[in-house]
Write the structure tokens for this entry.
Amino acid sequence: MSKQKPSIPKGTRDFGPEEVSKRNYIINTIKSVYQLYGYQPLETPVMENLSTLLGKYGEEGDKLLFKVLNSGDFLKDTDDTLLQEKNSNKLLSSISEKGLRYDLTVPFARYVVMNQNELSFPFKRYQIQPVWRADKPQKGRYREFYQCDADVIGSNSLLLDAEMVMMIAEVFDKLQLNVTIRLNNRKILDGLNEYIGETEKNVALITAIDKLDKIGLSGVEAELVAREFDAAQIEKIKSILIFEGDVFEKINFLETIFTGEKGIKGISEIKGLFEKIKQVNNKNITINFDLTLARGLSYYTGTIYEVVANEVKIGSILGGGRYDDLTGIFGLPNMSGVGISFGLDRIYDVITELNRFPSSALINTQLLFIPFDADAEQFALKVAKQLRAVNICCEVYPDLNAKMGKKFKYADDKKIPYTAVIGSNELTEDKVSLKNMASGEQRLVDIQELITELTGEGGIGFLDVSE
């Protein structure tokens, strides 16, 4: 009987050496920009208490939380009546107290509340870790994926909202991606509720608008009908969703129809934001005021952000927004914050599809020593130590008895550009036979010439792997 082949859960992936190197290139690019703006690193546990997670992401988000069964016999203390009902929602509180984190923002808020007396505000942090969502796997959508977050909490200044746009633009400029940054403000959506005379269906309206990209305007209209918005309200909503114009034309349009307090406040904030980001003028970055942008997460209260790639259709590759009272649900009210999250996995897919990873993204072995005998091996180890001291990546082939063809094939398979053969003649002269694997050129060099070849002009150069 044959054994079943091993597999991994749907929506998860293994990453080989080349993929990890490319992902680290993206992470290090994002991290470097975060650090330039004064953000500090933070990590939180994989699991959080369900009491921390539930109710923070809206009805849809709660359904996508991965729940973790209690340790040991998790059914031991469960009520028999609940077991017979087979209702998982009723059973949940008795069999599961923990869940995998859904995002990094709620754990960040929990951390701030727990450590408020040790932090200096405004507190800037970045966090790059995996999150999990029980979603249906498809292109660009995974059950396990990394987020690359930056949040600042303890100030409601629009300068920080603008700073997020600046960091977004700088990261995508460094990654050489052509993107559109979509901006809106949740208070404008609240203003839309005021405009249609509705006070009880704010969440329903935002949920419907948030699906616009997936189901189209007619689909949104059908959902609004199902949620019992009347015809006049739907027409008013549609008039805003279909309005076209530049940033200030849209602002002027809203100023003519919004009279409620929240809507006016939202207009003021979006106007102030665009005034502060005038200096962002990279030719590959488009910034739009998008009246249809809603962002489904229920804790956003001000500016909301989304980024899409202009050259690859894959959905949003960044999201974020301002939240005025996220920490309030954990007992620390009036602590406003704003944050963004780069979608590492989708950004990786975009750069891969566009073939835009630079050669420097791969940290490869640059030189393979091929010793003929034990003495040559000791010499190779000594020289390798010298090379590594100046950040030259190198390795010594471990099997002295292997055929030469196998050794050179190893170099080819790993895309190692140089080999250094060491035999009795090389040992006598204290040199190595350096071979350029691309050209086939081979010559006898001493150690200093070897280092110069690998680091100096005319050589392959070397990667800074100090980070």
Residues 457-467 have pLDDT under 50 and may be disordered.
